[in-house]
Write a structure and sequence with these properties.
Strand content: 25-35%
Order of helices and strands: EHEEHEEEHEEEHEEHEEEHEHEEEEHE
Distance between the termini: 24 Å
Number of domains: 3
Radius of gyration: 23 Å
CATH class of the largest domain: Alpha Beta
Largest sheet: 10 strands, mixed
Number of strands: 20
CATH architecture of the largest domain: 2-Layer Sandwich
CATH superfamily of the largest domain: Pseudouridine synthase
């Protein structure tokens, strides 16, 4: 390979990884890079080193889809320890006794979660990667430097306390992207007057992806580039809620040029709902993976070529070309 040349990825798609405890999300990306034999790898939502579970990793051309996937809703399951608290809101921090109130019973804990559901304003924990004035919060925290952090609006669809035994309670949280489960548990502990921290945390769902379809990281290590492909999901699986259109062969070259094409050159997948004006859709060659992300528009942004001008109706304006989809 010539010096300075970039190695092209032979893989394009999504891998659902079951992240083990003790690794950062970037550690997982580095393992996948070696297993796939490419540096074109990214992830769509950070998991703390303490947390395990579902991490979506994008390979090759699928990395272009990251901006559409980082906002996916998520579901977590875990255990909290009651009667204590820590500066990180989990067991990896400086664990101290809680405020001193007795640990509530199960019905009371469930009642106390109610104010922590719906749309709420949440302050990110001091030990987090949120940036303030160009530095991560945990950098300020490690140096003991106080910093003011603005609350962020997040959505918590469910905060269920499943059971409680002694000072341990099992819980489930369904929430929007950007929600800190550690903070929810800490706030519940403060409301209860006894304190609480996350003991174990596992991400079980990301949008339509389920932990049951995730691949253990060691299996990817063992597979290497020769066996990696068996764990790769197509780019079409990344955004299953989007309409999918299969483009006639005559329309594909125009997409390669970034040219809007008439919607009449695409045939809606029978399992998809038709796209409406301003919707984002997947465009695919017949029998292939995603070729482009496009927006449905009422007319092309510029005068179309004569070969296309005779068509009437809606148009597909390419937003991102996914050249690995052919």
């Amino acid at each position: 390979m010539p010096k300075g040349a970039k190695r092209q990825s032979r893989f394009h798609g999504v891998v659902a990884v079951d992240k083990p405890e003790g690794m950062t999300s970037q550690d997982v990306v580095n393992v996948v890079r070696r297993a796939a034999g490419t540096r074109r790898v990214g992830h769509t939502g950070t998991l703390d080193p303490l947390a395990t579970g579902l991490l979506l990793v994008l390979i090759g051309e699928a990395t272009k889809l990251s901006e559409y996937m980082v906002g996916f809703d998520k579901v977590y399951e875990g255990t909290m320890r009651l009667g204590v608290q820590s500066d990180t809101h989990d067991r990896q921090g400086d664990v101290q006794p809680g405020p001193g109130a007795p640990i509530p019973d199960l019905p009371t804990l469930r009642r106390l979660t109610a104010p922590l559901t719906g749309e709420i304003d949440q302050v990110p924990p001091a030990f987090s990667a949120v940036k303030v004035r160009g530095r991560k919060l945990y950098e300020y925290a490690r140096e003991g430097e106080p910093v003011e952090v603005e609350a962020r609006r997040v959505r918590v669809d469910a905060f269920d306390i499943l059971e409680r035994e002694g000072d341990t309670a099992r819980f489930r949280v369904a929430c929007s992207s950007g929600t800190y489960v550690r903070s929810l548990v800490h706030e519940l502990g403060q409301a209860a007057g006894c304190g609480a921290l996350v003991q174990e945390l596992r991400r079980t769902h990301v949008e339509d992806f389920d932990i049951a379809e995730a691949v253990p990281l060691d299996r990817l290590r063992e597979a290497g580039p020769e066996g990696f492909g068996q764990y790769l999901l197509p780019m079409l699986d990344a955004l299953t809620a989007w309409p999918i259109y299969y483009v006639e062969a005559a329309g594909v070259p125009w997409l390669h040029r970034g040219q809007a094409i008439p919607a009449a050159l695409g045939h809606l997948d029978p399992e998809s709902t038709a796209g409406r004006i301003d919707d984002l859709v997947y465009l695919c060659p017949v029998g292939g993976d995603a070729l482009a992300v496009a927006r449905v528009v009422p007319k092309p942004p510029s005068r179309p070529p004569a070969q296309l001008a005779r068509h009437v109706g809606l148009w597909f304006q390419p937003v991102k070309l996914l050249t690995g989809g052919e």
